[in-house]
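Here is one chain, start to finish.
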Amino acid sequence: MARARPYNKREWELGEEERWRKLARTVPAVLMPIGTSRKAIRSTMKVKSAIKAVRRTRSLSVSGEPSDYDLLDGAHGKIERISATHAKAGHLFVRCAAHLSGLQGGAAWQAWENHRADADRFANEARQCLSRVESAIEAAGDVLLAVQWRRGRRLPQEARDLLHRAKDDVSKALDALRDMHRAIVLEFFDAWMVLNRDR
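Its structure:
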């Protein structure tokens, strides 16, 4: 069985269970910043603004604007970082709870597990929506190539439909991200309740 290793002499004086409890208390401190951060939402909003600008100005490059793909990559990257940090915090909390008597089980633990699963599901949903956005933008560029479109001319109906679908998928991704953040904040409170039960 693994042991919680103390970092300094003062921590060494704590009992084994108290060291695990102290380590478990770092999880809520990680969850709140990622639950309240709006970086992924702001990054995804930029994608939506770019799509609106394309539809308004009719200035989609035939090869696809690199900036559109950069915005999508940025949004994907931010969601990936949030998901990775969230997964590590969850793994740590489960490991600590295994070493602490009485933490696993009960209503607060079940609520924490449910909100953790919800956050993962919403993050995956947001990533899938953004992948569909990328495909739709690429397909719109292919349509413009096929009809030999020139800047300033009206976008073909097929390209407009694809961009409209991309905008809808960005909206769905934003909804999923908001739900993910809400689930992570609830997970923070659940973790705090689990840790402070019987105290």
